[in-house]
Amino acid sequence: MATILDVSLLNTVGIIFPILIVWAVTWAILRKTKWLGNAPAIDAVIASAVSLIVLISPKLVHFLNFIIPWFAVAIIFFILLLLVFRIFGAEEKDFANAVRNSSALMWTLIAMGLLILTAGIFSTVGQDFTNLAFDSTAPVESTTTGGVATSSFDTNIANILVNPKILGVMIVFAILVFAVALLTGSDIPK
Asked: How far apart are CA 41 and CA 43, in angstroms?
């Protein structure tokens, strides 16, 4: 039975989103750099060829289908954040100055982008590498509960992230980052 919440149709047309994104990004880069001259038709043909080449790799399509929604959510979040700042009196030149002058904001955006890309790579090829590491016919036995010697990539990542040693290292690393920032007098976000 078809319902409003039934999104199974999106699975059948889900191949279109990566094609459109690759086409748009390729065309925008070619138009901005004028690498092939000032011919929009040639740029469109090259962008179409590159976007159709993406279809050859199902892993690349899966990767793009994973990261596109996350980047869309991040962009929507930043647009809403800008709207909130506008409500409180910030002007457009304040945003431009903040992006140009604040290294903390720039590094935060870069870190978020790299985090999304890394999660996409792990989501795409993580289980394949886990399958290569374990013989699928032999049972895997872990000596402790919450161990990372399982044949499930998602379980291994979850167990690594909640491991007390890893959490302790992350806390010590965060303390060191702030200590270095405070001792060197660098720009700390206020």
From this structure: 5
Cα–Cα distance between 23 and 121 in angstroms, integer? 21
The answer to whether residue 158 is domain-embedded is: yes
The reply to whether 71 and 124 lie within a common domain is yes
66 neighbors 124 (Cβ within 8 angstroms)? yes
Q: Which domain holds residue 188?
A: 142-190
Q: Which helix (H) or strand (E) holds 122?
A: helix 103-133
**What's the CA gap between 113 and 25, in Å, rounded?**
16
Give the separation between CA 72 and CA 140, rounded to whole angstroms. Answer: 39
User: 95-147 pLDDT, tens per residue?
Assistant: 778 878 877 778 888 999 999 999 999 888 888 887 777 765 555 555 556 56
Dump the DSSP string for 29-75: HHHHHTTT-S-HHHHHHHHHHHHHHGGG-HHHHHHHHHHHHHHHHHH
Query: How much helix, strand and coil, in percent to the nearest 5, is found in the chain?
Result: 75, 0, 25
Structure tokens at 48: 């179409």
Q: Which residue do the tokens 């290292």 mark?
A: 169
Amino acid (1-letter code) at residue 48: S
d(CA 72, CA 17): 12
Residues 69 and 126 in one domain: yes
